[in-house]
Amino acid sequence: MTAKILDGKKIAQDYRAKLKKEVAVMKAQTFTPNLTVVLVGNDGASLSYVTSKKKAAEAIGMSSDIIKLEENTSEEEVLKIIRGLNENPQVHGILVQVPLPEQINESHILEEIAPEKDVDGFSPINIGRLYAGVETFIPCTPLGIMELLKHADINLTGKEIAVIGRSHIVGQPVAKLLTDSDATVTLLHSKSKFLKDTLKRSDVIISAVGKPGLVTVEDVKPGAVVIDVGNTVVDGKLRGDVDYEAVKEVAGAITPVPGGVGPMTITMVLNNTLIAAQRLVEKQKN
Amino acid sequence: MTAKILDGKKIAQDYRAKLKKEVAVMKAQTFTPNLTVVLVGNDGASLSYVTSKKKAAEAIGMSSDIIKLEENTSEEEVLKIIRGLNENPQVHGILVQVPLPEQINESHILEEIAPEKDVDGFSPINIGRLYAGVETFIPCTPLGIMELLKHADINLTGKEIAVIGRSHIVGQPVAKLLTDSDATVTLLHSKSKFLKDTLKRSDVIISAVGKPGLVTVEDVKPGAVVIDVGNTVVDGKLRGDVDYEAVKEVAGAITPVPGGVGPMTITMVLNNTLIAAQRLVEKQKN
């Protein structure tokens, strides 16, 4: 059996086409949703990320701005800029690109973003709302993974799921979303002793480690769904955690790298920005 | 082999003796830590809980107040009272007893409590800080469980742990703390298909369901540590989730019900209140 390929590029394209229609309706009726990205410093990879977010927002009809700050910008200055964006009614989604330079405390910055504009869902109050079951923004990579799973023809209720990687950006929140979907989740990490046994009995494997070759064909139960969040550059090429070529011969469904989870993450930033703008419209109505 | 009994009553007593000494030092040097509990309505069980919290606080030298409000108090009124407590420098810990009457939205109330006085650790911003790895108050039952485990003579690194129950009050945060302690956690719940298999291979079982008889002697690996958070009244007696009499003959360590997790929860409320007061002293110094 060859796995169904979960083509993130295509799924993201279809999803963005749907968002584009909603943005057009919103622009006709009210205003243009705006995503503003704050970038501190001159990291090349970071600049390329924020540029692609801006382009993606504009491609679906949103407006998007990049606020580029010098490497040596003080924390207080960044906080002041965020306060300005919080108060600006023409800005609906705010992203601060990480990592930040050493002089800036990341959690201070994230706590300053107004919860209703925190489209990454990384501010503590929004993370807390997620766990408390209150309206929030779901972090983009976990949300993108959930969207991909909808295309994997699997009912999550009662399924055994192995999540590898315990970061609060991917592993932990996706474990939370999967638990909410009635799956039974085991959260694995570098100190786990029976990683291979756990993978072998799992109906779904989600690997978010950044270690090419971690998940081999021997680890995968025939028919299992494999989502690869790994994202490592090896010899100039992007590689996931999963031995894709071999695993796709036994899995029921699998994401490629690149073109799997990656395109979904940016799509969900756009999704959350639209939601932020729509919530503002609702609020203005009341 | 008969299990080591994790005597929560005794462990809590020792812990409170330690807190009492720290409170005495604080009173001599600065001020008396205060825990204020807000109770809305006339639920008998709730009144008994808040009274025992007040008594426990006073027993270790803290001051404690109960603000008793009518059943029909409006949400706005409760919010106003919380704002007053937030601003009152003589109040260091604030608890709002749940459940609240229907007209009051619990999450609105919890979000209003100043994070630095939220000693239950239930406000979204504090839950979020827990997941983001930022200074916070750890919810009291999970914190009490971690303290009990210190007495179980087990090194958590790499251990397989089954947590039963996915509430955001116990199951989810204790899973998070255990993952942080390098254990491999499987979070089980009512929709889990292989609950018994998972229990049987686990080094630690934490059951927080409220279903007497859920964990039987057949489910427990010899030598495993069993923490029973169950708390169900059956024929006037408090019962846990675990078949205690049989399981204690095979487990390595086990908590009784009553006298296991229960006494630890209130102890951790006191612990967090002292921390809140200490953080205020530190803040005033700077």
TrEMBL record, chains A, B:
Pathway: One-carbon metabolism; tetrahydrofolate interconversion. GO terms for molecular function: methenyltetrahydrofolate cyclohydrolase activity; methylenetetrahydrofolate dehydrogenase (NADP+) activity. NADP(+) binds at G165, R166, S167. It comes from the Bacteria. It catalyses: (6R)-5,10-methenyltetrahydrofolate + H2O = (6R)-10-formyltetrahydrofolate + H(+); (6R)-5,10-methylene-5,6,7,8-tetrahydrofolate + NADP(+) = (6R)-5,10-methenyltetrahydrofolate + NADPH. Its EC number is 1.5.1.5, 3.5.4.9. Residues 6-120 form the Tetrahydrofolate dehydrogenase/cyclohydrolase catalytic domain. It holds the Pfam family THF_DHG_CYH. GO terms for cellular component: cytosol. Keywords: Amino-acid biosynthesis, Histidine biosynthesis, Hydrolase, Methionine biosynthesis, Multifunctional enzyme, NADP, One-carbon metabolism, Oxidoreductase, Purine biosynthesis. HAMAP family: THF_DHG_CYH. Belongs to the tetrahydrofolate dehydrogenase/cyclohydrolase family. Homodimer. This is Bifunctional protein FolD. It comes from Macrococcus lamae.
